[in-house]
Amino acid sequence: MFALVDCNNFYASCERVFQPSLQTKPVVVLSNNDGCVIARSQEAKALGIRMGAPAFEIQALIRRHGVQVFSSNYSLYGDMSNRVMKTLQEYSPWVEVYSIDEAFLGLHALETYYDLPEVALQLRSHVRRQTGIPVSIGIAPTKTLAKMANKIAKKRVEGNGVFSMHTEALREASLRDFPIEDVWGIGRQYAQLLQKRGIHTAWDLTQVPEEWIRKQLSVVGLRLVKELKGIPCIDMIAEREQKKAICTSRSFGTMLMEYSDIEEAVSTHAFRCSEKLRSQKSCAAVVTVFVHTNRFRPDLPQYAHTIAVPMPMPSAAGADIIHYALVGLKKIFRSGFQYKKVGVIVSDIVPETQVQGNVFESAEVYSRQRDIAQVLDGINRKYGQRTVAYAVQGTRQRWKLRQEQLTPCYTTRWEDLLEVRIG
Asked: What is the pLDDT of residues 149-181, one digit of tens each?
């Protein structure tokens, strides 16, 4: 049996942990630069606030109903996610982190000796007590069915946030009522194709001949159907595969024209890419830089360009990634334009143990750069990001996101720790 644990309205729930007075109030979290709604509490959903709604379009609704609005605080959300995942590991050694707010649990060691729905209720209570985050739990014999069970758990009041497909009757009843477009792995185009054939529920899909499924939905679709039938075809993934490319980019809070401001942003993104490379113990051989203006402002001159710069040998050193990113920036930057976004992508990634040297780079230089990077990482992990940075990353940061409703990083920054006053 598998369990899928999903944090309810995760970003909004993180904000509520540190402001309990918001528990019954409508809460929304906005995207980068406070642009669109990316998270909503149940109360906000009840008001009709849709996911992705531009913030400026719902201002009247926000004022009328006292909706609490927050800028996205990814440092806080990432740390809270890590706390939830560590709590899950207390119940099962098989935890696959699927996203920032979801994880699959293998229940192989528990199903023989324990009542799984009861274990799930205990786990749900334990996560809430340890982290303050409410979760829903779906249990089933396959990962696809566990995904389905989790969605059902969110809707069923009587289940207290838990639903288990531990019998064949429960599986069949669930499939008969489950819309085909909500099945994990069925996208919009596939859903339209299936609906035209009269397949409207997950149960309908399991009744179609496998030959047709293989032809129309490929082997992946056939695997999905077998999962719906209760036959496990998707294994737990102990470790995520290394990324083949890493991108760091941000839209600016205000449009910028000065090269020095763009240079600071590119340097910071490049350094962040190098940190991500080192975290997965890999190196990259190509650095790509892109810049563009605001395409939503047709009244302004438009410009966009991308350039890929190969490095002499793969590297994860911040100094190397920044250097070649700026080589690319100097070639594509054009004055006279108001830039809205820049980004850095590192690609041609290989494990650090498989880096091939060349006659122009000595092993001593490579080793020294790696040692410097490890020292920087250690300092920044202990004292916070940008405690030590390269000078070219600058200090003005005029390119930073607009975050007018940003809450403190309660768990990741000393100066943002909660203060408890007595008396």
From this structure: 999 999 887 778 999 998 899 999 999 999 999
User: Is-contact 73 406, C-beta < 8 A?
Assistant: yes
Identify any residues that bridge with 30 across adjacent strands, giving them in sequence order. Answer: 37, 71
Distance (Å, whole) CA 283 – CA 243: 11
Say what percent of the chain tops pLDDT 70: 93
E strand or H helix that includes residue 165: none
Q: Note the pLDDT of residue 185.
A: 87
Are 2 and 138 spatial neighbours (Cβ–Cβ below 8 Å)?
A: no
Look at residues 33, 108, 39 and name the one whose alpha carbon lies nearest to residue 68. Answer: 39
Token reading at 72 = 């996205």
pTM of the model: 0.76
Residue pair 205/194 in contact by the 8 Å Cβ criterion: yes
Q: Which of 28, 29, 36 is nearest to 65 (CA)?
A: 28
- Residue 362 is predicted with a pLDDT of 59
> Nearest CA to 268 among 251, 285, 249?
249
Alpha carbon of 170 to those of 97, 148, 154: distances in Å? 27, 12, 16
Distances in Å between the Cα of 100 and the Cα atoms of 121, 313, 333 are 21, 33, 35
Q: 99 has which bridge partners?
A: 102
The residues facing 350 across adjacent strands are 283
Q: What is the mean pLDDT of residues 194-223?
A: 90
Other Cβ atoms within 10 Å of 388 Cβ, number = 12
Written as six digits, the tokens of 118 are 């009861």
**Beta-bridge partners for 71:** 30
DSSP secondary structure letters along 282-327: EEEEEEEEEEEE-TT-TTS---EEEEEEEEEEEE--HHHHHHHHHH
315 φ, ψ (degrees, to nearest 5): -150, 155
Q: Taking residues 201-222, report their average pLDDT.
A: 89
Residue 98, classified by CB atoms within 10 Å of its CB into exposed (0-12), middle (13-18) or buried (19+), is: middle
344 vs 358, more confident = 344
pLDDT above 60: residue 359: no
Instruction: Give the chain's mean pLDDT.
Output: 88
Q: What span, in angstroms and rounded, lies between the C-alpha atoms of 94 and 70?
A: 34
What is the rounded CA–CA span in Å between residue 117 and residue 236? 20
Which amino acid, residue 91? Y
Which three-class secondary structure state does DSSP give residue 367? helix
Of the pLDDT bands very low, low, confident and very high (cuts 50, 70, 90), residue 307 is: very high
Q: Which amino acid is at 214?
A: R
